[in-house]
Amino acid sequence: MKLFKILFFTFILLASYSQASDAKIKKIVIAGPFASVSHPILHMIQENALSDVADMVEFRLWKNPDELRALVIKGDVDFVAIPTNTAAILNNKGVDLQLLNVSVWGILGMISRDDTLKSLKDYKGKKVAVPFRADMPDIVFTELLKRQGINPKKDMELVYVASPIDAMQMLILRRVDHALLAEPAISVALRKTKSFPISIVAPDLYRSVDLQEEWAKVFDTSANVPQAGIAVLGGMRDKHIIKRFLEEYNKSLEWYITHPKEAGILVANEIDLLSEEGVSDSIAHINMKSVIAYDAKKKLEFFFNVLKDANPKSIGGRLPDIPFYYKGE
User: Fold this and answer.
1) Span 265-318, pLDDT tens digits
2) Which of 154, 184, 275, 310 would bridge with 282, disulfide CB 3.0–4.6 Å?
3) Single pTM value for the model
4) Tens-digit pLDDT profile for residues 227-262
5) Residue 157 to residue 211: CA distance in whole angstroms
6) CB burial class (10 A; 0-12, 13-18, 19+) of residue 232?
């Protein structure tokens, strides 16, 4: 009888676990920018990759850090594609948020009308458009300048704009000759000005300095800079759904990298700010690989410390605690 009871309760537990893991929710909401970190999500939705765990998956576009913070604080988002430092800020402010992975390790670069500019030192005395003042791209750029003996406030004219799209438009309209951008905005700008692969007369714009390569030289490290990834909000507590999300994101990231033409078509259809040729071109110039957040912790903490030394507010004042970093199963 005792053995029967053990077997009976074991069966009940297994049945309950199976029902829980097979249970579906009505909707998963994912927020993200127009940048590369979001593009695999669009493929996941197209392929109904999460149909086993949700009846519907909705993508919400955020266009600047303020929109992102408003979405997260409102609390009706389950997953968010997010700059790693913004994830740290929100976590340090008490938002129930955990970084799942780092998938973007290199998308920042300079674009210029001058093809002789080969390093950040060459930008001394130039007028440069910079998006997201006091946010991650700006801090990385200005910190790299300072560590090479350039005072951004005295030695350059930085024109701050609200978004990469605004910086790109300034370039296209010839209001500036140089800009700091993130892919795919660099490749889209080159396409819009017929500068890629090359115009009939001469390119109007040139792909210039790679900020990740500058990072590697300045800090004597690799060019892998943990810039963005996926975070889960506290309202989503189903471990099975989180696991399934990461599995499908990783599959779609692999598809995105290996199918640039198809990826360009998909993304341009969903995000009208981007062109399919620009997105396709950008994939050859980005460093994307999905690494579980806890496995990237050493790289993240080095990155966060650099940002904190430049501006403590850029990570929320301190390094996140260990629970911030998702360990996986």
Assistant:
1) 999 999 988 999 999 999 999 999 999 999 999 999 999 999 999 999 999 999
2) 184
3) 0.89
4) 999 999 988 989 999 999 999 999 999 999 999 999
5) 18
6) buried
Asked if residue 171 is part of any domain, the answer here is yes
Question: What mean pLDDT do residues 54-73 have?
Answer: 91
Within a domain: 22? no
Q: How many domains, in total, are found in the chain? A: 2
276 and 317 share a domain?
yes
Same domain, 128 and 177: yes
Q: What is the pLDDT of residues 172-215, one digit of tens each?
A: 889 999 999 999 999 999 998 887 665 554 568 999 999 999 99
CA distances from 146 to 137, 226, 249 (A): 14, 21, 37
Peptide bond into 184 cis (omega under 30): yes
117 plus 208 within the same structural domain: yes
Q: Name the token pair of 54.
A: 């949700």
- 262 shares its domain with 308: yes
Contact 81, 37 (CB under 8 A): yes
Rounded to an integer, what distance in angstroms lies between the CA atom of residue 139 and that of residue 281? 26
Residues 6+ apart with CB under 8 A from 152: 141, 142, 145, 146, 158
Task: Give the Cα separation of 85 and 137 in Å (integer).
Answer: 10
Residues 126 and 200 in one domain: yes
Is 17 a domain residue?
no
Compute CA distances 132 → 122, 129, 166, whole Å: 22, 10, 10
CB 182, CB 112: distance < 8 Å: no
Alpha-carbon gap, residue 41 to 219, rounded angstroms: 32
Are 36 and 245 in contact by the 8 Å Cβ rule? The answer is no
Q: Are residues 73 and 175 in the same domain?
A: no
- 97 and 232 fall within a common domain: yes
Percentage of residues in the chain with pLDDT exceeding 90?
A: 77
